[in-house]
Amino acid sequence: MADSVSSEEVAVISNTDITSTESENNIINTMVERGTALLRKLEINVAEAEKRTGKNTVNMQETYTVYLIEIRPAETEGGTPAAPDTLWRRYSEFELLRTYLLVTYPYIIIPPLPEKRAEFVWHKLSADNLDPDFVERRRVGLENFLLRVASHPVLSNDKIFFLFLTEEKGWRDAVLETGFQDKADSRLKSLSAMFRVKNPDKRFTALKQYSDELNSIISQLLRIRARVADRLYGVYKVHGNYGRVFSEWSAIEKEMGDGLQSAGHHMDTYAASIDDILEEEEHFADQLKEYLFYTDAVRSVCRKHELIQYELEMAAQDLVQKKQQKEELATGTVRIFSLKGMTSKLFGQESPEQKESRLAALEQSIQEGEETVKEKNTECQEFVRAAWDDIERFKEQKDKDLREALISYAIMQISMCKKGIQVWSNAKECFSKM
Question: Which residues form the PX domain (predicted)?
């Protein structure tokens, strides 16, 4: 490496664009449900949830929920389903698994867990994390998390993930023995890198901005949906008053009584139907929430890249400074003010032996610095390549999932409107027969 190289010139190597052809060739998976060897061999379900009571780490009584994971061979001889292998897991164990995956695979957009406590709720929906409806939605979300991991071309091959599915007792010890907690970069270190990177990769900067904007948009959608749910609930329940009034009216009529009573029943049915409708809508909200939480996973990959880029720039800058020191020592010229330069002026120049010793030490330090820059540069390039492959896979998955979720929501609204039309059509028939 030439002495004239600058830190910016070294650092910019990591930002070379991957061509579209290379990117296409590196995308192994398009997020099909059974695209990995693991899902071709096993069926994975979170079959049920159970409330338990026990003592926590500080010997206090607590109530918590555990989830039953079932796995069974995807194909069995004779077509008879095999009995599943089962084990129970707490939500905190799912959290530990995801933290391990985040640290171990920093270049991958790790699937998010469902919310720990209900967010964006409308007023009739319980925010209690032990509420049966919330626990059921979380059960569905945890199963979805396992299937996301199991369908990923890299994560599905992780031994710790397989142990999570199969070893109830020894799994926690196995994950802690990996030492993943020691590898975790501190949040403060990542923030420092974000503000101090001189040559950020424009693609990751754009991705981070997109992630922030998507987070804001989905949050707005969820808030609007919660407000609409509140108003819909009120409108439907008010229709129950029609039923009460028609029933009271029918009691004072002879010829019109039967028609009014029937119309009142239709109104009561309409008013009661909103509970099931809004419960079904919660599953749509949970689909949106998954991608709300996915935006944090995307930002995590961007932060890791910033940290690697920052370390590369610091190594390159340190190398430039050492080469400058060598040049100054060899030529006897000092470009900038330094304590060593002042010392030599006050106490005289070094002896030839001292100078030769310092030159040799600097040469050794320069060689080590060049090796460090080379390693950091390779690390950065490999991270960019691996991360961008996974980002392309994620984009395809996101577009497909959100398109299907929005279509399903539209169909749900159309169905709801048709039911309303049908109720009033039935009421019209009742009135016509009076």
Answer: 45-171
